[in-house]
C-alpha cells in the first residue's frame, strides 16, 4: 500500500510525543477534575470562576491546536489546527469522512480531537480488523465522541453495569422470540391508538408522526404498559430525549468538563429521564401483580432501579433512531417507486388473506395482531428487500471503536493503543463495484442471481458485523413491518411536497443528520385516506 506522508513531514517538521504530552497532561487533569474552577480554588457560581474557566479553556484549546501531536507517522495525517480540522467531524460527520477519503486518496487517515487520536479506516482489510479484532472496545468511542448517548454518570449515578454489557445482555434476554410473540397484540394496539389521532384523511410529516410510532413501540417493549399507555409521560420522555440531543454541541463534546450551559442542559435532561423512568420502576416494584412487561422481568431478575433505568435509556436510544429513520424512508421510497409499492401491497394483502378472517367484523389491527410471528418473518420477502435497500441507503452511521489493549498493524500502519477508530458503512454501501448505481433505490439487487450484498465479505453492514451484530434486529424489523402493514392494509397514501403534489425529484436523506436523516432541502409529506378500519 502507498502510505501518505504527513503534512509535517512534507514541511520537514516532526515533533516527538513528549513535546505535546505536557499540555495534554494538563488538559487531562482538568478534564478529570470535577470542575476546573474548583481546581483553581474558585467557586463555581461566581462570575469570576466562569470567566476564569472560560479563559483556561480557551488557553488549553489554543495550546492543544498549536502543539499538534504529529508523530513520525506511517499514515496520512490531516493537517491544520486540530480543532478546526476536527470540527466537521462533529457537525457534518458523513461529509467529513467521505471528503477526506476522496481528498487523501488513502485507505486510512488520522486526525486529532484535542488529546484523542482518531484513525478513519476504509476497505476490506480495515473493515475486517474493525469488526473482528478483540482489542477493540465497543463502547468507549461512542461514549466519548458521541454525546447524545444518555449516561447516568452525568448525574453522578455510578454503576458497574456498563462494563458488564448489561444493555446487550438484557436486550438479548427480553427480545427472545417467544417473548416478542406475546407482545404483538399490545404493539398493534399502541400503533393503532396513535394512528387514529391522524384522522381519516389528511397529510402528515412521516419524520415526525411515523417516527413517534416507533418511539411508542420501543418504549412499550423496554418498559411497561402503564408508561406506554400514558400519552403525557411518553411525550415528556420524548421531550427529555430531544433536550439531551439538543444539549450536544461540538464544544460540549470537545470540552465535556466545561461547566457551561450545554453541560447543565445535559445533566437536567438526564435527571428528568431518570426521575420519570425510575418512578415507573417503583410503581411496578410496588405492584402486587407482576406482569410480563420488561420492567417487571428485570425486577424479577433482581436488577436495581439504576440498572433498569440505565437499560431503558440505552435501549430507547439504540432502538428508536435507526428504526425510526428506516421506516420513514421505506415509506418515502415506496411512495416514490410505484412498482415496488404495488409489490409490497400485494404481499401485505396476501399475508392478511392467508392468516386472518377477512370477513370478520374485527378491526384491521386486531386481525393483523393474530398473524403468527413466523409469517411476519418468513412471508414478506419483498418487504425484507425494501427494508434492506432502505437501510443500505440511509443507515450509513459512522461506527466507532477504541483500541484499548495492544498496537495493531494494518497494512504497515500502526493503530496505537488508545487510538479511536472510525469506519463509515457507506465505504461499502456506496461502493459502485459492490452495488452498481449505488444511489439508486433497487431492492431487486438482493434477489437470487444478483445478490450484490454477497459480492465481497461484509458487504452489508446496516445490522453490524463480526463481534457486535445488532441484538435488536428481529424487533426492529417487526416494528417496521407492523407500521408498514397497517399503513398498506388500512390506507391509500402518496408522498407529496408542501404544495400537495408529488415531488419532482426523489427526496434524499441528509446523511449528516445523525438522529433522523430528514430529507435534504424541501420536506416531504405523506398524504393519506383511511380505507379499512
Ligand atoms: C433499524 C434498526 C436498527 C439498526 C439499523 C441497528 C444497527 C446496529 C448496528 C450497526 C450495530 C453495531 C454498531 C457497531 O458495530 O458499532 C448495533 C448494535 C446494537 N444495537 Fe442495533 N440497530 C437497530 C435497532 C436496534 C434496536 C431496536 C435495539 C434494541 C432496543 C438495538 C440495540 C442494539 C445494541 C444493544 C447494540 C450493541 C451490541 C453490542 O454491544 O455488541 N438496535 N445496532
Q: Provide the β-strand percentage band.
A: 5-15%
Cofactors, ions and other ligands in the entry: protoporphyrin IX containing FE
Q: What is the domain tally?
A: 2
Low-confidence stretches: 1-46, 66-71
> Given the C-alpha coordinates, what overall shape results?
globular
How big is the Rg?
25 Å
Round the mean pLDDT to the nearest integer and report it: 85
Number of strands: 11
Strand order of the largest sheet: 1-2-3-9-6-4
Number of helices: 23
End-to-end distance, in Å?
Answer: 62 Å
CATH architecture grouping of the largest domain: Orthogonal Bundle
Name the CATH superfamily classification of the largest domain: Cytochrome P450
- According to CATH, the fold-level topology of the largest domain is Cytochrome p450
Helical residue percent band: 40-55%
Structure summarized in a few sentences:
Keywords: Heme, Iron, Membrane, Metal-binding, Transmembrane, Transmembrane helix. The chain has helices at residues 7-10, 17-32, 36-39, 47-66, 82-91, 93-104, 123-132, 139-145, 166-174, 177-196, 206-222, 225-228, 231-246, 250-254, 261-285, 294-300, 305-336, 338-355, 364-368, 373-378, 381-394, 426-429, 473-490, and strands at 76-77, 108-113, 116-121, 136-137, 201-204, 398-403, 408-410, 413-415, 420-424, 491-496, 525-530.
Amino acid at each position: 500500500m502507498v502510505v501518505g506522508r504527513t503534512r509535517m513531514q512534507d514541511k520537514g517538521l516532526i515533533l516527538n510525543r513528549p513535546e505535546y504530552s505536557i499540555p495534554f497532561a494538563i488538559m487531562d487533569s482538568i478534564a478529570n477534575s470535577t470542575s476546573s474552577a474548583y481546581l483553581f480554588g474558585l467557586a463555581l457560581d461566581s462570575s469570576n470562576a466562569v470567566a476564569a474557566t472560560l479563559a483556561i479553556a480557551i488557553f488549553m484549546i489554543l495550546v492543544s491546536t498549536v502543539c499538534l501531536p504529529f508523530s513520525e507517522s506511517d499514515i496520512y495525517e490531516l493537517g491544520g489546527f486540530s480543532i478546526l480540522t476536527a470540527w466537521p467531524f462533529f457537525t457534518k460527520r458523513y461529509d467529513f469522512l467521505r471528503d477526506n477519503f476522496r481528498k487523501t486518496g488513502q485507505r486510512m487517515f488520522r486526525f486529532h480531537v484535542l488529546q484523542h487520536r482518531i484513525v478513519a479506516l476504509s476497505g476490506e482489510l480495515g473493515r475486517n480488523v474493525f469488526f473482528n479484532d478483540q482489542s477493540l472496545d465497543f463502547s468507549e468511542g461512542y461514549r466519548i465522541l458521541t454525546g447524545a448517548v444518555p449516561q447516568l454518570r452525568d448525574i453522578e449515578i455510578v454503576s458497574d453495569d456498563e462494563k458488564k454489557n448489561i444493555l446487550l445482555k438484557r436486550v438479548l434476554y427480553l427480545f427472545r422470540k417467544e417473548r416478542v410473540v406475546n407482545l404483538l397484540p399490545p404493539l398493534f394496539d399502541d400503533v393503532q391508538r396513535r394512528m387514529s389521532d391522524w384522522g381519516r384523511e389528511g397529510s402528515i410529516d412521516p419524520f415526525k408522526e411515523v417516527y413517534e410510532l416507533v418511539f411508542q413501540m420501543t418504549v412499550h417493549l423496554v418498559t411497561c404498559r402503564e408508561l406506554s399507555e400514558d400519552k403525557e409521560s411518553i411525550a415528556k420522555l420524548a421531550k427529555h430525549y430531544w433536550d439531551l440531543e439538543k444539549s450536544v454541541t461540538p464544544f460540549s463534546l470537545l470540552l465535556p468538563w466545561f461547566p457551561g450551559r450545554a453541560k447543565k442542559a445535559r445533566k437536567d435532561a438526564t435527571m428528568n429521564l431518570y426521575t420519570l423512568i425510575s418512578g415507573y420502576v417503583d410503581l411496578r416494584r410496588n405492584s402486587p401483580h407482576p406482569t410480563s412487561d420488561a420492567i417487571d422481568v428485570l425486577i424479577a431478575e433482581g436488577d436495581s432501579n439504576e440498572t433498569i433505568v440505565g437499560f431503558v435509556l440505552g435501549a430507547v436510544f439504540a432502538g428508536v433512531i435507526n428504526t425510526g429513520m428506516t421506516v420513514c424512508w421505506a415509506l418515502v421510497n415506496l411512495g416514490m417507486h410505484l412498482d415496488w409499492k404495488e409489490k409490497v401491497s400485494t404481499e401485505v394483502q396476501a399475508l392478511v388473506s392467508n392468516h386472518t378472517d377477512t370477513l370478520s367484523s374485527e378491526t384491521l389491527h386486531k386481525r393483523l395482531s393474530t398473524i403468527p410471528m413466523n409469517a411476519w418473518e418468513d412471508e414478506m420477502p419483498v418487504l425484507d428487500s425494501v427494508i434492506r435497500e432502505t437501510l443500505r441507503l440511509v443507515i450509513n452511521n459512522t461506527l466507532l471503536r477504541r483500541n484499548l489493549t495492544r498496537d495493531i498493524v494494518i497494512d504497515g500502519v500502526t493503530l496505537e493503543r488508545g487510538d479511536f477508530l472510525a469506519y463509515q458503512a457507506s465505504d461499502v454501501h456506496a461502493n459502485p463495484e459492490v452495488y452498481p448505481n449505488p444511489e439508486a433505490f433497487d431492492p431487486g439487487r438482493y434477489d437470487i442471481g444478483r445478490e450484490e450484498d454477497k459480492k465481497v465479505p461484509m458487504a452489508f453492514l446496516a445490522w453490524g458485523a463480526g463481534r457486535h451484530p445488532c441484538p435488536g434486529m428481529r424487533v426492529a424489523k417487526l416494528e417496521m413491518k407492523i407500521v408498514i402493514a397497517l399503513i398498506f392494509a388500512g390506507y391509500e397514501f402518496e408522498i407529496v411536497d408542501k404544495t400537495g403534489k408529488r415531488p419532482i425529484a426523489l427526496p434524499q436523506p441528509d446523511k449528516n443528520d445523525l438522529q433522523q436523516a430528514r430529507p435534504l432541502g424541501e420536506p416531504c409529506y405523506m398524504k393519506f385516506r383511511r380505507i379499512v378500519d
